[in-house]
Amino acid sequence: MKKEINATGQACPKPVIMTKKELDNINEGMITTIVDNEAAKDNVSKLAKSLGYEYEVDAKSDNEYHITITKGDKEEIEKKSDKVTKGNSKDVTIVFASDTMGKGSEQLGKILIKSFIYTLTEATPYPSTLIFYNGGVHLTCEGSEVLEDLKELEAKGVEIISCGTCLDYYEIQDKLQVGEISNMYTIYERLKNASNTVNIG
Amino acid sequence: MKERQFGVVAFKSTQYAIKADTIFNRHNIKYRTIPTPREITHSCGLAIKFNLDDIKEVGNIIEDNHLETEGIFKIIKDNEGNKAEKLH
After folding, report:
1. Low-confidence ranges of chain A (pLDDT < 70)
2. What confidence score (pLDDT) does residue B42 get?
3. Which of A131, B11, B21, B35 falls between 20 and 30 A from A56, CA-CA?
């Protein structure tokens, strides 16, 4: 079974919702979602990834992306989700709600957070996901003093996601240097699925 | 695991560590503010990590700015764990 969803012109998170709805409707098959911007492409891809479905992205142009998701049998899906939790990373999600650690002195808080993120690079197993929202998104953008550490973590397989609404609010969407832009759906999914969530900030 | 070496300055107090972070930031030198390695126990919790090639410059910065340290250390990381060697 093949189906096409035209999500061009739809504001975030509509393309994700439309795709999810169709995927829920079918037992197995292929669904191609067409979107007109990169953020939507990433979000739909991430949806597929988080559900454990195979997907392929075909960039037709700068404003036309086709994401084809294959919903296969359950056994296969479970096998894939197993892989994510095994290996070098622990099923822990760390949330950075601001660019300082704790309340009190901002100067101290900024140093503590640098020191904390450095520590993450030194201790294994690594967390599976780092989530940055509100003031925390400054840490993943240009000018952040922890970019090098975050890039190292990303290279080691740690998923790094920054809240798109927040990047937009601070008008630093084009300054993102590491990881991916995401939405509240993905953030909630990571928080909900992790066996452990640690809040910093 | 490959052996890794780097320098670490440990400070007398957190205030000096914070001051050092601001000062090092103004210099063209690669450094990192890190939690003081466990091998160096007798100091405050924050330290400056640097490349051993820059040891002379690091020493000058500390002296010029009267930063009170617990010492400058060489940290050696290998398969057997971490070792700290006091340099200064």
Report:
1. 1, 73-89
2. 62
3. A131
Interface ipTM: 0.76
Whole-number pLDDT of residue A81: 46
Name the CATH topology of B4-86.
Alpha-Beta Plaits (3.30.70)
Task: Identify the residue among A101, A107, A108, A111 best suited for mutation to test binding to B, counting B beta carbons within 10 A and taking the highest.
Answer: A111
Task: Name, in order, each residue with C-beta under 8 angstroms of A116's C-beta and a sequence gap of 6 or more.
Answer: A101, A200
Of B1, B2, B20, B6, the closest CA to residue B76 belongs to B6
Residue ranges of domains in chain B: 4-86
Measuring CA to CA, which residue among A148, A184, A180 is closest to residue A161? A180
**pLDDT for the residue numbered B83:** 86
pLDDT, residue B79, reads 77
Instruction: Kindly list the structural domains of chain A, giving each domain's residue range(s) and its CATH number in brackets, ordered by start.
Output: 2-81 (3.30.110.40), 87-200 (3.40.1260.10)
Q: Do A119 and B17 touch (CB under 8 A)?
A: no
B81 close to A (CB below 8 A)? no
Q: Which among A107, A108, A118 has the least Cβ separation from residue B34?
A: A118
